[in-house]
Amino acid sequence: MSYQIAVLSGDGIGPEVMAEARKVLSAVETRFGLEINYTEYDVGGIAIDNHGCPLPDATLKGCEAADAILFGSVGGPKWEHLPPNDQPERGALLPLRGHFELFCNLRPAKLHDGLEHMSPLRSDISARGFDVLCVRELTGGIYFGKPKGRQGEGDDEEAFDTMRYSRREISRIARIAFEAARGRKNKVTSVDKANVLACSVLWRQVVEEVAKDFPDVTLEHIYIDNATMQLLRRPDEFDVMLCSNLFGDILSDEIAMLTGSMGLLSSASMNSTGFGLFEPAGGSAPDIAGQGIANPVAQILSAALMLRHSLKQEDAASAIERAVTKALSSGYLTGELLTADKRSEAKSTAQMGDYIAQAI
Amino acid sequence: MSYQIAVLSGDGIGPEVMAEARKVLSAVETRFGLEINYTEYDVGGIAIDNHGCPLPDATLKGCEAADAILFGSVGGPKWEHLPPNDQPERGALLPLRGHFELFCNLRPAKLHDGLEHMSPLRSDISARGFDVLCVRELTGGIYFGKPKGRQGEGDDEEAFDTMRYSRREISRIARIAFEAARGRKNKVTSVDKANVLACSVLWRQVVEEVAKDFPDVTLEHIYIDNATMQLLRRPDEFDVMLCSNLFGDILSDEIAMLTGSMGLLSSASMNSTGFGLFEPAGGSAPDIAGQGIANPVAQILSAALMLRHSLKQEDAASAIERAVTKALSSGYLTGELLTADKRSEAKSTAQMGDYIAQAI
Ligand SMILES: CC(C)[C@H](C(=O)O)[C@@H](O)C(=O)O
Ligand SMILES: CC(C)[C@H](C(=O)O)[C@@H](O)C(=O)O
């Protein structure tokens, strides 16, 4: 099998962690007899520098011609003075999501054995562990709803955004959450604010309807404010969390932080054809870029998600995940995951990539 | 001085914790020579049972005639099957906020000395303590914005809500946050999603303008998703958090949970005349109602906020707060704040009230 991948490494640590993901993918090619062709495109800050905008036409065309997008990370202090719409994150990610209708965002987050001390949670809570999959709707809601803008003058000037969801949008993302739950603990927690939002009332209704097709999956509803709280007390009781765009943005980041190891978390954003964008959940970390100390695991796991969801190479995907688990459980770790007394055992970005590639 | 208070005890533990707040207020009356007159009105579930709606006309009229509203808590399983709009919380709180234009919600939350073990945070993080005041806009944004509703049919049926903020609404709440910061650590963190929302772009702009009148206060901006994360890692670095209605709903609850002691947290919702509604931040806790074990401190501290903000009796307010601190730091605590081995020392709801009243 031969595949075409658009590689958008971006800024900060993007290029260095991407190099390790490529190493691991090449081990997978050999082992599973795949042929993966890569084309690199500028995105984010580097694209602003080279082409004057965060998502140049050539990049978009390259993505259109590919089977999947492997994305690094974008942004940094150099571009923070730009107006929000022109900044790397907003100016690249939102148009990509919109253009390819990447409505389904999967953000898995679990506390790895042996890394409980990284969690900001109290030790008796983190000792119970957790493994949550956040399923976030990514092309609807208040991110894209029209009208959005400003009107009026002086003190009466006002701004407005529209949160909008159709039955179709809600049911397609709900279905994905229920299907994912079947391969996990068979539980979906749908997050809304049905005591205030009309969108949430429809959301709850449609989710209930979809649930009828999944009698083996338990469904519960929780308000966003309460979800934010319960995740702190009993994260182990959640399995799949089904969220609208805005609530998913907030909750997936809260859950990521609860693991305490953002460098391990990856994210998949897909459309209905299986095409997708795969990226680490963390940012471009400009403060540590270029030092060879960034954790490449999130980028490597993004490649695994790409193999699974877009290239339908489940065996190759799980081989990568097993190799990562092996590294982590052998204590083969980058510095940020080690306590101060063990910092001298820290592995470099390249050492991590080598180890994982070899373990394939 | 003589005052008229509308007492809306509501459901669950509401009436029993309210009784203790009344005890403490009566100690304050004697000591500071005040005359406080109370009239009780039904609200929430009990009002649904007695009058068919969660906020009867008589209750609203009684509140109009009063100098302040002392609110207990509403809701419980008995009324959960009702449509969202008719439920006790939504059907009582939102109309009260709207009717009296209670645009300013103050939610102070700190980790009390000696109660660090209650926090769900890792011990080295909770050991640093924190003291955050959430200033939440309460009558604007997506809660009240029009249009809000549904249209279309079948799969195309859609729901919509409107987030809307005017300069006037933003600047009046921002001013309150900056003024509050002056009596604290001189720092305001304004929470928004300016990389996505038009409302947030205006929010950020107006907050910057207001900040010019407070050169002694440091202002920083943070995205809501990042705020949710940073509160878990470094809660001690925040002072005043300035939030829109929806983001304040989410963040104030996250912060409350970070203290691990919801029974200690109170909340003030005020309008521009100083009139306000004062209530515990926690819920009606129907599971422990009627057992005499509920913590009355949040209700007692709500009475202190009422004295300070609506009745302008600062001395009486601080006397209550000092008495509460005395109780807590002497280890005079209700059961939920004690570790299992000390549970036998737990004080009852009434004992807490007696102790605090006596300490006035
Ligand atoms: C950059 C921003 C627009 C984006 C979002 O809010 O979706 C980011 O926070 C994310 O979660 O990928
Ligand atoms: C009951 C609900 C409408 C309310 C809100 O969201 O404002 C509650 O969560 C609160 O924070 O007081």
UniProtKB/TrEMBL annotation, chains A, B:
Site (Important for catalysis): Y143, K193
SMART domains: Iso_dh
Residues the entry annotates as binding Mg(2+): D225, D249, D253
Chain positions recorded as NAD(+) binding sites: 76-89, 283-295
Domain of life of the source: Bacteria
Keywords: Amino-acid biosynthesis, Branched-chain amino acid biosynthesis, Cytoplasm, Leucine biosynthesis, Magnesium, Manganese, Metal-binding, NAD, Oxidoreductase
Co-factor remark: Binds 1 Mg(2+) or Mn(2+) ion per subunit.
Ranges of residues in domain Isopropylmalate dehydrogenase-like: 4-356
Binding site for substrate: R97, R107, R136, D225
Annotated EC: 1.1.1.85
InterPro entries for the chain: IsoCit/isopropylmalate_DH_CS, IsoPropMal-DH-like_dom, Isopropylmalate_DH
Enzyme class per UniProt: oxidoreductase
Catalytic reactions of this protein: (2R,3S)-3-isopropylmalate + NAD(+) = 4-methyl-2-oxopentanoate + CO2 + NADH
Keyword Cell membrane belongs to the record: no
Gene3D superfamilies in the record: Isopropylmalate Dehydrogenase
Biological role: Catalyzes the oxidation of 3-carboxy-2-hydroxy-4-methylpentanoate (3-isopropylmalate) to 3-carboxy-4-methyl-2-oxopentanoate. The product decarboxylates to 4-methyl-2 oxopentanoate.
Similarity comment: family membership: Belongs to the isocitrate and isopropylmalate dehydrogenases family. LeuB type 1 subfamily.
NCBIfam families: leuB
Name of the protein in its database record: 3-isopropylmalate dehydrogenase
Recorded name of the encoding gene: leuB
